[in-house]
Write a structure and sequence with these properties.
The protein is 19% helix and 23% strand. By secondary structure, the chain is of the alpha/beta class. It has two domains: 192 residues, Rossmann fold (3-Layer(aba) Sandwich), CATH 3.40.50.200; 79 residues, Alpha-Beta Plaits, CATH 3.30.70. Strands 1-14-7-11-8 form a five-stranded parallel sheet, sandwiched between helices. Strand 9 and strand 10 form a beta hairpin. The longest helix is centred in the C-terminal third of the chain and has 14 residues. The radius of gyration is 20 Å and the shape is elongated.
Amino acid sequence: MVLLFLFAILLFFDSSTAVPNGLQTYIVHVREPHTTVSSNSLDRESWYISFLPSSSSITGSEDGHDRMVYSYQHVMTGFAALLSEDEVKAMEKKDGFISAYPDELLPLHTTHTPDFLGLKQDMGVWKNSNFGKGVIIGVLDSGAMPNHPSFSDVGMPSPPPKWKGKCEFSACNKKIIGARSFVEGAKAMLGRSMPASPSDESGHGTHTASTAAGAFVEGANVLGNANGTAVGMAPFAHLAIYKVCGQSGCAGTDLLAGLESAIQDGVDVMSISIGGRMARPNFYTRAIRHRNV
């Protein structure tokens, strides 16, 4: 079972953005395929494609595959696609349809520290947990700066055999064991290209990843002040980085794609410091709440 460990999460998609051609990215929930349909990913995608407009109803050279942004299997039964309001209304009449809502950009949030939680290095639950040794933490954020001292792998064991993830930059080690980037949702919403590297542009993902599992870094300070040892919550845990946020925020479709990959990769714990802009977000209609991860 994958644990959804939320350091600071208020998941609410509260403002949608249309793409220039009048289409909009929707997250679509459907029922599981019929038992006669194989569970492999190609057949599942064919099931999803059946909900999209037929090629005869789409102008130009587009077809259902061109409209598909993401196909989900583990995090939810459904997909993300470029659709018009009329196409969504037509889709609602199809057998197996559950719900659809526009993709939205989410703002980044932050986390707290071991001191705030009263954790002690030489006693108690922190020490007894072996500082997270053997655990894989998936961080869904703005990426990471891999050469940061908090990501040193000195003294780290090799990744557990169950790890099946990938590394899309050259600096992975025994601390950062995987790094991937998911930006197709943001590209579809904003109508422009996005950096595909999982490297961090804003510093937020580096901050949250090091808060989750940063190594012990002695002599840390801010402009010569507050000298001490910087350390994350689980300094012996491994990190899997999933870049799902850019300078403009985090597309819900990209967040779901990151969750999908993390589950497949063998992540144990997920850190998501992403939130909404309202005090009382309406969770129950949203994709993260549709799945017990």
